[in-house]
Specification:
552 residues, alpha+beta, seven-stranded antiparallel sheet, five-stranded antiparallel sheet, 19 helices
Length: 552
């Protein structure tokens, strides 16, 4: 009877379109004072979610030393401001005003306080200047001048990253491209969109929706993040299982090098086999090789039939088998396959306003959110129903429900998209973004629970469809005892199983020194050679991506 009840529950549905199904999560509302930050002789230290030591004694530093040093890492690693960088002076300000105008050279303390701080309030720089260029030419003039003066810069878009990649470490000049937000061209035949780097992702999604197309990229931060930042970090998101990474979707881009040279690689061709495809150097390099100013991206047509199911599994093996079955039986209409464990669900229900359990009858160990997208409603319905029935009969699903309207679909997505916000509200958060073989993924979670015991809560969720685990350790406050149990164990475990320590968030400041867990010394040395070739003075986003010992 229970199986029949659950099967009937799964197949409740309506034909109403669910294309606009997700709630907009306001990033600004996700900033909470509960995330601990401290100053040392009046100057900020960056709080790294998994590695900063808030208890580190800085009393021995003079004020001048505090300006030149930042403590971070799982041991007492010290980031020093490069002595090769100049400091800003009045002549620099006058030059920037001459090319940008008064209002686009920002020195207001309140504006700078926001620009210096990441959205999770874990990192804070001390930049005294924010520049807002309106064109590629202005970006070129800025970088040409900064390179000649040895002024370090940090490119910034929507500032939604979580590894400290988009905020200054010290006093770097912030170059925010948000004013470069024009859609330059859209070809309805090919689906190719050309736009400036400052376009907000959600605005592009809305534009394309009106044109009958969709972005191949969708993120919880879409209301704030910008396409230039998305490309520069090779953002992943929910649709990667369907459309692949930005290395496949981005056809071309324009980027400005450290010396001001403009690289026009803004191709709109799907096939171009003439020499090295240099755009890939800038996709995922986090602004350390150049500033992306324009992007051309291939967008798929919008399909009319969208369905979302929220399912329960008794164990992680069931989740794996369900993924295998979904790939086989849903095939071309499968567009999202996300998972969260019981700890993640509990966190969401207790810390997200208005969140409701889609399956309130009982508590389950694992939950899966599946989205299908197709062009034939009756065909898609038949495939989904057959998949759910066979999965229920095979014992892969304990319970589940298919969204009957947009509101219900949005409530499903609120739980999954709202987990980063819930983790911040819960207190201190040590977060890890890992790629691992699916069959090994949850073993790490269980190992971490065994190591931590009652010290902290281990929360697991992520993009199971593309083997991306978000491992979060939540505690009331940051504690060196917790950190000692997490690091370097989590990196060693990932490396041992040939995983990646950064699946989609990038390395930024937080994990720059951890790159050797995923890349060989020879590979990192070649990366450093490329960095030195394109940015010999090292002014572009210093202290990020590459190990600090190898930075110019």
């Amino acid at each position: 009877m229970e199986k029949l009840r659950a099967t009937h529950h799964l197949l409740r549905r309506s034909s109403r379109s669910l294309l606009d199904r997700r709630l907009k999560l306001n990033s600004e509302n996700s900033i909470h004072s509960s995330v601990f930050m401290r100053t040392c002789t009046g100057h900020w230290n960056r709080i790294l979610p998994a590695c900063l030591h808030p208890s580190r004694d800085c009393r021995g530093l003079t004020e001048a030393n505090a300006m030149q040093n930042r403590y971070f890492g799982s041991v007492a690693e010290l980031v020093q401001r490069s002595p090769s960088f100049s400091t800003l002076n009045s002549d620099d300000i006058s030059f920037f005003k001459s090319i940008l105008g008064e209002k686009n050279v920002v020195q207001d303390e309140d504006v700078l306080a926001t620009a210096n701080t990441d959205w999770m309030r874990r990192y804070k720089g001390s930049s005294k200047l924010l520049l807002q260029p309106r064109s590629t030419e202005e970006v070129s003039e800025i970088l040409k001048y900064c390179n000649s003066r040895h002024l370090a810069v940090v490119p910034q878009g929507g500032n939604t990253g979580v590894v400290g990649g988009s905020v200054p470490v010290f006093d770097e000049v912030i170059i925010n491209v948000g004013s470069m937000n024009k859609i330059l061209a859209f070809d309805k035949v090919s689906g190719i969109l050309v736009c400036e780097a400052g376009c907000i992702l959600e605005n592009l999604i809305s534009f394309l929706d009106n044109e009958g197309f969709v972005m191949p990229l969708d993120l919880g931060a879409k209301g704030s993040c910008q396409i230039g930042g998305n490309v520069s970090t090779n953002a992943g998101g929910f649709r990667l299982v369907r459309y692949g990474s930005l290395h496949g979707s981005v056809l071309g881009l324009e980027a400005v090098l450290a010396n001001g040279d403009v690289l026009d690689m803004l191709s709109t061709l799907r096939k171009d086999n003439t020499g090295y495809d240099l755009k890939h150097l800038f996709i995922g390099s986090e602004g350390s090789l150049g500033i992306v100013t324009k992007v051309s991206i291939l967008t798929p047509p919008k399909l009319s039939s969208v369905n979302i199911a929220f399912l329960a599994c008794k164990d992680f093996l069931g989740c794996q088998k369900l993924l295998q079955e979904a790939k086989r039986k849903l095939g071309e209409i499968l567009s999202v396959f996300e998972f969260l464990d019981i700890e993640a669900m509990d966190l969401a229900l207790n810390h997200l306003e208005g969140a409701r359990n889609p399956l309130p009858a009982s508590i389950h160990n694992f939950y899966v959110l599946i989205e299908t997208t197709g062009s034939n409603e009756s065909y898609d319905k038949e495939k989904l129903e057959a998949f759910l029935l066979s999965s229920m009969e095979g014992g892969l699903i304990s319970d589940g429900v298919v969204a009957q309207d947009i509101n219900q679909a949005s409530s499903f997505w609120q739980i999954r998209e709202g987990l980063p916000e819930a983790l911040i509200k819960a207190g201190a958060n040590y977060n890890y973004d890992l790629s691992l073989p699916v069959e090994k993924m949850y073993n790490l979670v269980e190992d971490m629970r065994a190591r931590l015991g009652d010290l902290a809560r281990v929360v697991a969720y992520g993009h199971l469809g593309d083997a991306n685990l978000h491992l979060d350790i939540s505690a009331p406050k940051y504690d060196d005892r917790i950190l000692a149990q997490i690091e370097p164990y989590v990196y060693e475990w990932t490396s041992k199983h040939r995983g990646s320590i950064s699946a989609e968030h990038g390395l930024g400041l937080m994990r720059a020194n951890k790159i050797f867990y995923s890349k060989s010394p020879e590979t990192v040395q070649l990366m450093t050679s490329i960095k030195n070739l394109l940015d010999p003075h090292g002014i572009l986003n210093p202290y990020k991506v590459l190990p600090h010992s190898l930075n110019p």
